[in-house]
């Protein structure tokens, strides 16, 4: 395991995210402690010393599971990270004390304001929670105070300027770097000397398996490297990144990731070019290449707002079922389920998209 210095400590470049452990129920509220502890133990024994959890993971069971497992190890040999989510609990004082008990510790090494968004920044800034956690830091109950963000860049800038944060956590991977605003987010934090913890380096597993042509391109360059390792090695090229989190839930993932983080090797500029070419191939085949030109909509007999539904389809493919909630806000007379497969839209699509196929898949996902 390779480590990176931070202030007066050394952090493992790979951290264990405690959000995706095996559970004993379909709702994911109760963790299978035996299986989860085996994963945590393997991570610790292979040199990982940064363990990230949160109150909202598995309805607090993630914190309890982690605390129960780590109590057998010397407290100065690992670092605990957990979070306060104002949307889940308004009583930040009571929450913090409960977290100390669940984690069976007298202090949290890395504490985060959780899931900053455009919709909750005012509540975070005005609730008094930041001031309280700064006071807990003075008392030694919190060592380093930071935040995690899913906000726009403007909101991120505003929150980052509140005071000199010790660190921040953002979603960072080569897909969002290439197609999203992640590079700008990285630069905002780097400019302010705020070190970065990375979440979703393989985008919830989406970057562990690419389309065949994209994988072939990467395998040709590095025959013995896993597809996941490309994602991790991309993040390792960024100097302001401290820890890269991975929600490993089986031993094969741990073994592969430990191998990736056993060396400082990352990616050369030429390999990054290859990776960007691969992700272009992946996006082209994995999602609908809609440009929202709207040539299709005037000719749809069912009056379906096709570009908006394809936008949600693409988010669904990349981000999961939660994205389907956005369909309720689409202004449209018809829905994907109303598509009669007439093909009129395809006759007017400059991108030659098989629109009925995508609408049918989206309708089935919405039905489920």
How do the helices and strands line up, and which of them pair or pack?
Elements: E1 3-6, E2 9-12, E3 14-17, H1 33-45, E4 50-52, H2 61-70, E5 79-84, H3 92-102, E6 108-116, H4 121-126, H5 129-138, E7 142-149, H6 153-160, E8 167-171, H7 174-179, H8 182-191, E9 196-199, H9 212-221, H10 227-236, E10 241-246, H11 251-260, H12 269-286, H13 306-319, H14 344-347, H15 355-367
Parallel strand pairs: 3-4, 3-10, 4-5, 5-6, 6-7, 7-8, 8-9, 9-10
Antiparallel strand pairs: 1-2
The CATH homologous superfamily of the largest domain is called NADP-dependent oxidoreductase domain
Q: Report the average pLDDT across residues.
A: 94
Determine the N-to-C terminus distance: 42 Å
> Tell me about the biggest sheet?
8 strands, parallel, barrel
User: Rg to the nearest angstrom?
Assistant: 22 Å
Shape: globular
Task: Give the count of structural domains.
Answer: 2
> CATH class of the largest domain, anyone?
Alpha Beta
Protein model, in words:
This protein is 42% helix and 14% strand. The protein contains 15 helices and ten strands. The strands form two sheets. It has an eight-stranded parallel β-barrel with strand order 3-4-5-6-7-8-9-10, surrounded by four helices. A two-stranded antiparallel sheet has the order 1-2. The mean pLDDT is 94.
What's the short version?
This protein is of the alpha/beta class and 368 residues long. It contains 15 helices and ten strands. The protein is 42% helix and 14% strand.
